[in-house]
Amino acid sequence: xxxxxxFSQKLRRNSGRFVLLPFAVFIAPLLAAGCFVxxxxxxxxxxxxxxxxxxxxxxxxxxxxxxVPPAAIRSALQRHAGPHxxxxxxxxxxxxxxxxPSSEADDVPLGDIGxxxxxxxxxxxxxxxxxxRLFVTxxxxxxxxxxxxxxxxxxPRYLGAQNSADANGLVIRPFxxxxxxxxxxxxxxxxxxxxxxxxxxxRSEFMPxxxxxxxxxxxxxITLRFPRDWLGDWQTVASGFDRLIAQLHPQ
Length: 251
Known about the structure:
Structural class: alpha+beta
Radius of gyration: 29 Å
Number of helices: 5
Order of helices and strands: HEEEEHEHHEEEEEEH
Low-confidence stretches: 37-41, 103-131
Shape: globular
Strand content: 15-25%
Largest sheet: 8 strands, antiparallel
């Protein structure tokens, strides 16, 4: 190879480096910025799980501040302070204390609350029956109408004509067949429905009846699930719900 050819080859290599140099200078800041944004936005979790006996955790749902005892949180992934989209809780009834850490009843599916199926209650269901469980979900209300507005403006469209009353002053009105609430009853205090109302499934051969009451707190929705059998003492249930919400939202 002549000296001129070697010089030409070296010149071509150097010119290639000069072409790539501006490109590298342009890309480097973009990569650095991307790494910084990913670091800032990457979800962070506590390095160690929160102890079940730790003080109540400050959590926010749709901008509403709640103080939640860690032992009441059913999922370990939700057991951290800060904003949440949803949080699932369980409380012993009627004490409204979190369940014992060793209790397995926290994992009982909502449909298993009550006195078991035709095949016989499981050990978990028996534990839930012995102590009683109130299941609470905190989530954002979002595009849903507040519960009181649904009571006045939505539910009446789907209710049947027949109704019955019990000795405790509750009115029981079934939802019509073919409606979104088919197979359920709307149960409310006859003199003041806003004082107490709930939508309840009916007891079947395999499943006990379960009731749901919803309450709005700002932009947050509080769903309380409890056995239909509790309706026999609905005044105590309503007062207990008031006390629990005051505990979760002291402000």
